[in-house]
Structures are given as structure tokens and as C-alpha cells.
Design the sequence.
């Protein structure tokens, strides 16, 4: 069993999907009904859908990125002026962490979703 897709609420599905796709070096797919997919390249899509009748409830999304792509994502964050943080509480700006022998950083998307990039999966007991 594996995750196939999940819906991500956004106030503007085009803005949010493009934001993530540009930062992670991905592409936005063609609309599918109310959804605008970002294919993560591992059989999973984030399907952005607009929710304008009530506030967006921020969620957390973590992306395992190859070590050799991490610096490029950080450079794209810098280029578009998005602050990244070493910690999930967003108290250590402009820094990355080195948990589990890899690197990681957190940043917000346009609707306040807490996005995380990591180069190593978390060690689980």
C-alpha cells in the first residue's frame, strides 16, 4: 500500500501549486476537475483545490529531496525571498538543520502550510 494523492487546500490553487513546483523543481499538471496536481515523481500527487469560503487550516508536508538537489531548493527560496528555517517552529531563520545525518529546512507556502525539505528520512524507533 502507498499514498497516491492528497488534496491541499489553497486560496488560489494556481499560485500555490506553481509556488511549490518552482521551488522543488517540479511541474504543475493539467487541471483535473477542481484539482491542480503537482506530481512529486514517485507516484504521488499533491492535488491543489481552492477553498475560499473559510480560512485554510495549515498542514505540514515534508519532502525527501536528493542531497544534490537540496542546495538548489535553498537557492530558489533565497531567489524568491522566502525565508526558510532550521526548525519547525520557525525560530531559526536562514539556517538549515542537520538531523539524522542529513539536512533539512522549513518554509511556509502562500497559505501558511508548513513545508519541509529533508535529505534523510527521520529515524523511527
Sequence:
Amino acid at each position: 500500500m502507498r499514498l497516491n494523492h492528497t488534496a491541499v487546500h489553497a486560496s488560489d490553487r494556481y499560485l500555490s501549486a506553481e509556488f511549490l513546483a518552482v521551488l522543488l523543481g517540479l511541474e504543475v499538471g493539467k487541471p483535473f476537475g477542481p484539482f491542480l496536481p503537482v506530481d512529486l515523481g514517485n507516484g504521488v500527487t499533491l492535488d491543489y483545490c481552492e477553498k475560499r469560503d473559510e480560512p485554510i487550516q495549515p498542514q505540514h508536508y515534508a519532502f525527501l529531496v536528493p542531497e544534490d538537489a537540496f542546495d538548489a531548493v535553498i537557492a530558489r527560496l533565497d531567489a524568491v525571498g522566502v525565508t526558510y528555517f532550521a526548525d519547525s517552529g520557525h525560530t531559526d531563520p536562514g539556517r538549515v538543520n542537520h538531523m539524522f545525518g542529513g539536512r533539512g529546512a522549513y518554509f511556509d507556502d502562500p497559505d501558511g502550510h508548513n513545508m519541509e525539505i529533508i535529505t534523510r528520512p527521520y529515524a523511527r524507533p
Summary: The CA atoms of residues 6 and 46 lie 5 Å apart. Residues 5-118 form a domain with the 2,3-Dihydroxybiphenyl 1,2-Dioxygenase; domain 1 fold (CATH 3.10.180.10). The chain is about 20% helix and 25% strand. The two ends are 21 Å apart (CA to CA).
